[in-house]
Specification:
alpha/beta; 251 residues; five-stranded mixed sheet; Purple Acid Phosphatase, chain A, domain 2
């Protein structure tokens, strides 16, 4: 049983924002830090995995991009699709132990949390790390996604869509902390805190231009300046993202 859980997701290889979140007192003092997938697919993959691996109280959940990095690092093309350029580059930076780490990540993860009981931590949904569910996804789709969950799991924490929300789904609480490294809607490092049976969605403000400069200085990815400028400035809003992802939730 863990009392306080700080939940991060979708770091996507952005070290300065991860470090800003990790410096938050309630993250630093949390009993457990759970990271809900897509840890390293971005401009600073090695630095992020090294930082996460050094934490003594972290639980890493597999994301779809983690699977893709493993496939790319092993000379495979994930799902027969052309990889994103940053993913292909990131996979080439990994040491064998990084690849083994990502390959061994579980999905989903179940933890007993004080005030919540048994909580499912996943990336897309508990049944599929690449499944899209959004704040306005219809209840039938949620029911399908949760069909195999044990009845005593009344809280589900997911990632994948990079947009924070907390909502009830037929009496289950569903939480998405948003993204640390690629936020849609507002810049900054998004995360969530589970404590005493309550949930709070948090955003760590950053000096965006300083963070972009840190990524540029700390990466050799050829297109790092443009990549960091787009994502750390959150140039895609939540409405844009929902419009782009909406067709994938079966609506």
């Amino acid at each position: 049983m863990t009392d306080t859980v700080a939940v991060l997701a979708d770091i996507h290889g952005v070290l300065p924002v991860l470090d800003a979140v990790l410096r938050q007192p309630e993250v630093r003092d949390a009993d457990t830090i759970v990271v809900c997938g897509d840890h390293a697919a971005g401009p600073q993959p090695v630095q992020v995995l090294d930082r996460l691996s050094a934490l003594g109280n972290v639980v890493l959940v597999r994301g779809n991009a983690d699977r893709d990095l493993v496939a790319l690092a092993r000379g495979e093309c994930p799902a027969g699709e052309e990889p994103y350029p940053v993913d292909a580059w990131a996979a080439r930076q990994l040491q064998p132990w990084h690849v083994d780490l990502l390959a061994g990540l579980p999905h989903p993860v179940f933890l007993e949390v004080s005030g919540f009981g048994l909580v499912a931590f996943c990336h897309g949904t508990p049944r599929d790390d690449n499944e899209v569910v959004l704040v306005d996804t219809r209840l039938q789709r949620w029911a399908e996604a949760f069909a195999t969950l044990p009845g005593d799991v009344r809280t589900v924490v997911c990632g994948h869509t990079h947009m924070p929300f907390a909502r009830l789904v037929d009496r289950r609480l569903v939480i998405n902390p948003g993204s640390v490294g690629m936020p849609y809607g507002r810049p900054g490092g998004h995360w969530a805190l589970l404590k005493n049976g309550g949930v709070s969605l948090r955003r760590t403000e950053i000096d965006v231009e300083e963070a972009i400069a840190a990524v540029v200085a700390g990466s050799t990815y050829p297109d790092r300046a443009a990549w960091a400028g787009e994502y750390l400035r959150a140039q895609s809003g939540d409405a844009d993202a929902i419009a782009a992802f909406g067709h994938r939730d079966g609506r």
